[in-house]
Amino acid sequence: MMDEVGAIRSAIGADFVFLEFINKAGETMYRLIRQEGNARRGVFETVHGTIQTPAFMNVATSAAIKGGISAFDLEELHCQIMLSNTYHLHVRPGEQIVKKLGGLCGFDGWTHPTLTDSGGFQVFSLATLRTIREEGVTFHSHVDGRVIFMGPEESMRIQSALGSTIAMAFDECVENPAPYEYAKASAARTTRWLRRCKEEMARLNALPDTVNPHQLLFGINQGATYDDLRIQHMKDIAALDLDGYAIGGLAVGEPTETMYHVIEQVEPFMPKDKIRYLMGVGTPSNILESVRRGIDLFDCVMPSRNARHGHVFTHEGIRNLNNAKYQDDPLPIEPGCGCPACRHHSRAYIRHLLKADEMLGMRLAVMHNLYFYNTLMEQIRDALDEGRFGAFCEENASVMSRRI
Amino acid sequence: MMDEVGAIRSAIGADFVFLEFINKAGETMYRLIRQEGNARRGVFETVHGTIQTPAFMNVATSAAIKGGISAFDLEELHCQIMLSNTYHLHVRPGEQIVKKLGGLCGFDGWTHPTLTDSGGFQVFSLATLRTIREEGVTFHSHVDGRVIFMGPEESMRIQSALGSTIAMAFDECVENPAPYEYAKASAARTTRWLRRCKEEMARLNALPDTVNPHQLLFGINQGATYDDLRIQHMKDIAALDLDGYAIGGLAVGEPTETMYHVIEQVEPFMPKDKIRYLMGVGTPSNILESVRRGIDLFDCVMPSRNARHGHVFTHEGIRNLNNAKYQDDPLPIEPGCGCPACRHHSRAYIRHLLKADEMLGMRLAVMHNLYFYNTLMEQIRDALDEGRFGAFCEENASVMSRRI
Predict the structure, then answer these.
(1) Which residues of chain A make contact with B345, given a CB cutoff of 8 A?
(2) pLDDT-derived band of residue A28, with 50, 70 and 90 as boundaries?
(3) In whole angstroms, how far apart are CA A172 and each of A82, A121, A182, A295, B83?
(4) Where in the sequence numbering do the catalytic residues of B fall?
(5) pLDDT of amino acid B20
(6) The whole model's pTM is what?
(7) Average pLDDT of A149-177?
(8) Which residues of B100-132 are buried (b: 16+ CB within 10 A; e: fewer)?
(9) Which of residues 327-386 of A touch B (CB under 8 A)?
(10) Angle at Cα B47 formed by Cα B44 and Cα B53, nearest 5°?
């Protein structure tokens, strides 16, 4: 497949190629419809709807976006795909309750695509007293302290009960910097765990009472910041022919330039005919730079978390609504913005709400930031469609990240 | 005016009368359009729109309903009139900022009627180290401890800057039980303060830069739980011919039956051609019983506060969504309810959100309770329109207050 892309690109002698890949099941799942450099404009078809890529997933940890945003609000915010956390939903309310309510789409009302993470990241970042063995991880719940065991099979079973569109493989996310030998052993175990995930997912999808028998499985590339480990791991998991591939273990302590370097190292070994997801990233600038390096899918708590602290994104830079200069400012967060906060409310009002600790302040700021991220992705897609993504990056990457 | 009503009622020999009163300025402000016993079906015309009465005011303390509800959400919740708190807005963000943004309707986006309280109740319940003198009250802000002086003129100036539809007179709200002599002296001072409020409001409404030159002023009946004090005070303030009359100082510690008794004592002395407001009340049952006793207007934090703790109102009684029995319950809070929470979400989902401390849980529960209160008032008005209010009370007063 790699060679095919290379051949087409050489043949037309241009950065722009029109490609369509067919997955092995005969269904068109990910279609790469245009490319500019390494940046990809694609379409990802799922049983719950179509995702235009590059896309940003809106993080609904416990099956709700923090800031009081419902599934029905999300449609107004131009969201295409929601991400929920397996660990949080396993701990509370428990996946069997979600399953009984019809899976996540019946539970939270979001009938478009949802991705669930594997729980791995939270097991390694939130839970306490964990023990990692070949079978999986034993840890204590951060909510009530009870002992939980989670391995590849458990993660798949939970995600199957949640009925998400996309399940993520159970992996170990190593903190950066990590010792080489540890990172190597961990990546090898993550590969072994991935095989078990694939097998278990196939079994679960074939069960008669499965919520979503078309549940997809994405593998996760690990290997800390070591080029050779990253590349070997990517080759190993690419051979398993999964529905999509993520790069994990980045944005966990390493410098931004290291992150871009790892993407550049790994990208040539990621299947071209599969969607690619950079986990937990990032700022608008990080997203632009990563799209430029060949990434299709992103998720990050930044837009909602920053909003709750009054930090809002605009095309001119980041505003801190807590600043006194906004106390009587009648303008919306960003003039011309079509989000529900900017259509109706002033900076002065939202600032007041945040200062008075009124939930509405957080809700309005979160709505703005999610709308900003989701429409930024639309602008990126438009730029790719029109062959001007490079220029779009130049204009926006640094401007959007400055504080104003 | 009293005699006129009595004469008409005697003449038609029925509980139902069709009346229309014209206020002294020649404008029709409050129109009593139907009466069943003492219960009144009316229409109150204001510069910001018409209020069908009996009505419930939705409490937006700091110019926002707690639970992340915006002015635009309120329209969907069948709200007619919002109430904001003068004390809170004076302390933060300050009335001059609200004025600069165009008054409350420019600030919070609610362009329908708004009532502001006088600040008196909060001065006496929230602020610390207060000193009451004839001029007014000196107290410490509950936010930053700074010393604030508020008297009748200050309250009117703040409310004028806020530009509400209805301003409330600055009064002293005495806790029940109160010593007779204290309650008597306090009520007399409240009358003297009311005269100063009326004078200052007239001056403010005539200023060239007044936000709402048609701002109305309601007087507040006080006198603790002493019939003679209550009646004398009501007579005294009725003589001042204000735009409306409130009964204050109830639901502050006395038994419910005492509250009903005070209403019954005072009601005959309340002008029939003016709207009547029972401050800070109450449960659905309290509202039904008070409408039955001749009250037109209510406000209470109960629907939003209880909702935030998972207690939701239905026509069958009050549900506690925290109960384990709702953990996998796919039904909406109240089947058939048209609120945004019931149209889209299950008890199981909202319970999960409340347990997981997700703002969305509070938002959905608050939306339900406010919708319940606002549509309860619609049902009361329909019952009055159709002459079956008595039967409506019988059916609902006790049922709605039971825990299920």
Answers:
(1) 70, 109
(2) low
(3) 23, 7, 11, 21, 53
(4) 117, 299
(5) 41
(6) 0.93
(7) 95
(8) bbebbbbbbbbebbbbbbbbbbbbbebbeeeee
(9) 327-328, 330, 340, 344-346, 348-349, 351-353, 355-356, 358-364
(10) 15
At B27, the pLDDT band (50, 70, 90 cuts) reads: low
Let me know: does B339 contact B307? Beta carbons within 8 Å. no
- Neighbour-count burial of B25, counting CB atoms closer than 10 A to its CB (0-12 exposed, 13-18 middle, 19+ buried): exposed
A144 Cβ under 8 Å from any chain B Cβ? no
Helix (H, G, I), strand (E, B) or coil at A120: helix
Q: Which of B63, B67, B72 sits opposite A344 (nearest CB)?
A: B72
Chains A, B: CB contacts under 8 A, how many?
134
Q: How many helices (H) and strands (E) does chain A have?
A: 16, 17
pLDDT average, residue stretch A28-36: 92
Question: pLDDT digit string (tens) for B256-303?
Answer: 999 999 999 999 999 999 999 999 999 999 999 999 999 999 999 999
* A352–B97 C-beta distance less than 8 A: yes
Name the residue facing B348 among A97, A330, A359 (closest C-beta): A97
Predicted ipTM > 0.90: yes
Which SS3 state, helix, strand or coil, does residue A107 take?
A: helix
Q: Which of B60, B25, B21, B24 is nearest to B44 (CA)?
A: B21
Grouping H, G, I as helix, E, B as strand and the rest as coil, residue B157 is: helix
Task: Return mean pLDDT, chain B.
Answer: 92
Whether A104 contacts chain B with CB within 8 A: no
Count of CB atoms within 10 A of residue B401's CB?
15
Place of tokens 């992150």: A259
Q: How far apart are CA B148 and CA B87, in angstroms?
A: 10
Which candidate from B62, B106, B349 shows the least CB-CB separation from A108?
B349
Hey, is the C-beta of A107 within 8 angstroms of any chain B C-beta?
yes
